Structures are given as structure tokens and as C-alpha cells.
Amino acid sequence: MRLVTSAQMKQIERNAVLAGLSYSEMMENAGRVAFGALSAYHDFEGETALVFAGKGNNGGDGLVLARMLWRAGAKVTVLLCDGEPQTKEATANLSLLPRTVAVLNLAYETQALEGLSKPDFVVDALYGTGFHPPFEMRDRQAAQWMNCCGAPVYALDLPSGVDADMARADCDAVRARCTFAFDSLKYAHCREPAKGYCGEVHCLNIWIPEECHRGLYWEIEEQ
Ligand SMILES: NC(=O)C1=CN([C@@H]2O[C@H](COP(=O)(O)OP(=O)(O)OC[C@H]3O[C@@H](n4cnc5c(N)ncnc54)[C@H](O)[C@@H]3O)[C@@H](O)[C@H]2O)[C@H](O)CC1
Ligand SMILES: [K+]
User: Fold this and answer.
1) Distance 134 CA to ligand 1 centre (A)
2) Which end of the chain is more exposed for a tag (fewer CB within 10 A), N or C?
3) Chain centroid offset of residue 65 CA
């Protein structure tokens, strides 16, 4: 299994764009493969799902997944933990959500967490490779809620609160049942203390062509 830094992952994504795959297609693929992996654990029809989405592209992956969960019959609530998305692709995916998906913006609805009931499962799309500890207060509260709600948490790419490269973890980092890593493993999936927050790690192919990984130095991690 390939093991890359967050800078190498960004280079791989840039190579993918040069090879003809857009950022928006990569985000769609990430949401889609996470949906496929999650279907091994849940039926979706009639289930309640809470998707915690951050302001970056990890949040965008979560918005794609939210749309697919809704399409599969789940009752989906999206929590925008840091306000509106800040990237073009994530913004586009917010606008693609159907009206029957409830969207709560924690930047304005500051008491929203207190009114939430335990869902059947939680998707952690707060932060991925862009995060550097520590959490700010609102993110900390969201992560604490995920850790205390009693429902299984599925993390997209990384559990929020861990540093992809240094494998450090905020003390309130999300404790995932499963982490769906995209394209390649990052150091946080393999090194303590971050590894301890990941649960089962599944590395998923988001259809970045193989040649986009050439010329970069990466390690091989036994799985
Ligand atoms: N690039 C792509 O098209 C794809 C990326 N994928 C997914 O994207 C994330 C990485 O996304 P990015 O926007 O770079 O970062 P994050 O979403 O993790 O974080 C957003 C943003 O937050 C800022 N930040 C960092 N630390 C803190 C902090 N302590 N408090 C507040 N804010 C913080 C920082 O500026 C970040 O930019 C990757 O993991 C994938 O999930 C897709 O897989 C496919 C395409
Ligand atoms: K995450």
C-alpha cells in the first residue's frame, strides 16, 4: 500500500488534473467509493445519518456522500461546522443537495448540536489532510459530540483532529469505527497516536491513473 505525505497527495492530484481528471471528478469519486464501502455496514433505507462537513474539500467529499445516502433512502442531516464551504468543488456539491436534506450551519445555529438525537451512523467529513492541530472551539465541540453520541463514526480520508504527516492527534480527535482513506495511505493511518483514532482503515481507489504517482518518492506499508 502506498504511503504519502499530504504534499505528495496534492502533487498526485495535480498530476491527475494534467491527466484529464478534474478536482470535481475526484471529489465525486471519493464520495462514491465511500458510499460503496459504507454499504458493507449499513442498508441506508430509512436509516438516519448525520454528516459533519468542514469548510474544505474533505467537507466536499462529505456533501457528495450525503447526496448518495439520501438517494439510497437515508434520512440525512448535514452539519456545516465552519460555515459555508470555502472551495469551488465543495460549494457546488452543497448546491446539489436536495431540499429534503436538512442543512444546519453551526456558524449561525450555535445551539444546534444540543438538539440532535443519536443517528444510526455519523460521517466525519470535518477535516482531512489539510488539518493541523489543535481544534478551534466549534470543531472541538463537533468532534466531542461525534465521540459521545454512541453511533458508529465513519471518517472520510482521516479522522478529524489528526495531522496527516506528523501523526499527531488533538486530544478530542474523532474516534472512528472505520476510516476510508482516498487513493493512498497517509502517515496518520499507520503511526501512533493518530493511528489509534482511525479504527479499521480501508484505502479506496478514486480512479487517479497509476502514472500520476510516478516520480514521487513514497513508502510501502504492509497491510
Ligand atoms: N483536492 C481535491 O480536489 C480532492 C481532495 N479530497 C479531499 O480533500 C481533503 C483535503 O482538503 P483540503 O481542502 O486541502 O483540507 P481540509 O478539508 O482537510 O481542511 C480545510 C482547511 O482547514 C484549514 N485548517 C487547517 N487546520 C485548521 C485548524 N486547526 N482549525 C481551523 N482550520 C484549519 C486549512 O486551511 C484547510 O485548507 C482530503 O483529505 C480529501 O478528503 C478528495 O479526496 C478528492 C479530491
Ligand atoms: K474526516
Assistant:
1) 15
2) C
3) 9
CATH no. of 2-211: 3.40.50.10260
Cis peptide before 133 (omega within 30 of 0): no
From 127, 157, 182, 186, mutation site for ligand 1 pocket: most ligand atoms within 8 A of C-beta: 127
- Residue to mutate, 57, 87, 207, ligand 1, most ligand atoms under 8 Å from C-beta: 57
Q: Is 31 annotated as a binding residue?
A: no
In the sheet that holds 75-80, the strands lie side by side as: 102-105, 75-80, 48-53, 121-125, 153-156, 178-182, 200-204
ipTM: 0.96
- Alpha carbons 145 and 89: distance in angstroms, whole number: 27
Give me the residue label for grid cell 433505507. 45
